[in-house]
Amino acid sequence: MYNAAFDASGSLERAENTRLIVQISCVATLGGFLFGFDSGVINGTVDGLKQAFHSTAAGIGFEVASMLLGCAVGAFFAGRAADYQGRRTVLIAAAMLFLLSALGAGAAPGVVFFVAARLTGGFAVGAASVIAPAYIAEVAPARYRGRLATMQQVAIISGLFCAFLSNYLLARAAGASTAALWLGQDAWRWMFWMQVLPATLFLVSLTFIPESPRFLVMRKREAEARAVLVRLYGEEIARTKLGEIGSSLAQDRHRPRLSDLVDKATHRLRPIVWVGIGLAVLQQLVGINVVFYYGAVLWQAVGFSESDALLINVVSGALSIAACLVTVALVDRIGRKPLLWVGSLGMAVSLALVVWAFAQAHVDAAGKLALPPSAGTLALVAANVYVVFFNMSWGPVMWVMLGEMFPNQIRGSSLAVSGAAQWIANFAITISFPLLLVGIGLAPTYAIYAVAAALSTVFVLCCVKETRGRELEQM
């Protein structure tokens, strides 16, 4: 059923099928849910990996971070493949890889097999991370595109939350993550196998949504694009949008290629691509995935039990979802840039408080790190405030902007480069954390992330331009 609205003259102003657009966006965001689940599930399995594979600190760092190498590769090639095979086709391939990864990681008999399974999951996460928000941006109207694209981050955090909750419940049912659960298999293996359920739902759901109309126009399949646009917007607006999309591509209708990212006049990378890379990298340099990947280890390191540490992760996940919902309400009202700026400032302050609290840590009689009660409370509160600020700003808004800020002709290639940069930065932060923890300690490590958060404030003010309310053809 179409939702129609008329202006004062009685002419049709909009007639989009809002229900269909929302349904399509929800299917695409299942990729974000799996992105979050695959990223978060590792959090509760570290002890199991240590026991099963006899891993050292460096080994654990690589086992946790190995997926991120796959993410960088997946993001790069997915952006390019999406320009040749289509957005939906790439998402279907990602769903299949999610299934293989979940089955393989849980069944892994050794490190090599486990890393191969996590790399496979990384290809899927990388692809979903860049293509899902781009797909949503290409089907949604500008007036609420930000809200729908922000739902991608809600889905990511929901995936993280469900992974944390699943890990907690499975470990509690077994007695510990390393204890046997069903069919004689350890609980940490079942943590990976739980992902089979949402991966199957994602794969099936993708068969019911259409291809992106902007991709179809780019591939000169105008009749198919028009049919999709009619379903989305109605006959009159479909005709107008088809013309606008065609006009945006008319001056340069060759197949998209990486060289399009270079300005022909200056022979340098286009400034908009550098901004995309900056957004992608800074999102990781603030250290958010240290909390997501190593949260259980972190809280155990400062005196919490495994059960309490896993429960803290659940609380952080719930707060993250609430913060993302705030962004859903605000992103199309106040814009992207104000949310990024406020988030940067909030993260810098809360991380500084975390640094101060961790600086109070001492080694107890048992040889373990411990925090004084007041410092422990401060660390817990400040870390969760930091998570809230991230998830109401850089978490969702970075993906919103990457999906919409690039011109049609270079969107796939720009996403490929920016997405790869994001996952390389993620890998560097993740693999370095255990080494930094041993080498310089908790407080100095978090000080690095606090400085990055402060720098992100300057980057937003100086380099980021607002995209709220602009059609993709105006970018």
TrEMBL record:
It is a multi-pass membrane protein. The chain crosses the membrane at residues 20-37, 57-78, 90-117, 123-142, 154-170, 190-209, 272-297, 309-331, 338-359, 379-402, 423-440, 446-464. InterPro entries: MFS_dom, MFS_sugar_transport-like, MFS_Sugar_Transporter, MFS_trans_sf, Sugar/inositol_transpt, Sugar_transporter_CS, XylE-like. It catalyses: D-xylose(in) + H(+)(in) = D-xylose(out) + H(+)(out). Its main location: membrane. It is found in: Cell membrane. CDD domains: MFS_XylE_like. Residues 24-468 form the Major facilitator superfamily (MFS) profile domain. One of its GO terms (molecular function) is transmembrane transporter activity. Gene3D superfamilies: MFS general substrate transporter like domains. Keywords: Cell membrane, Membrane, Sugar transport, Transmembrane, Transmembrane helix, Transport. Belongs to the major facilitator superfamily. Sugar transporter (TC 2.A.1.1) family. PANTHER family: D-XYLOSE-PROTON SYMPORTER-LIKE 2 (PTHR48023:SF4). NCBIfam families: SP. This is D-xylose-proton symporter. It comes from Rhodanobacter thiooxydans.
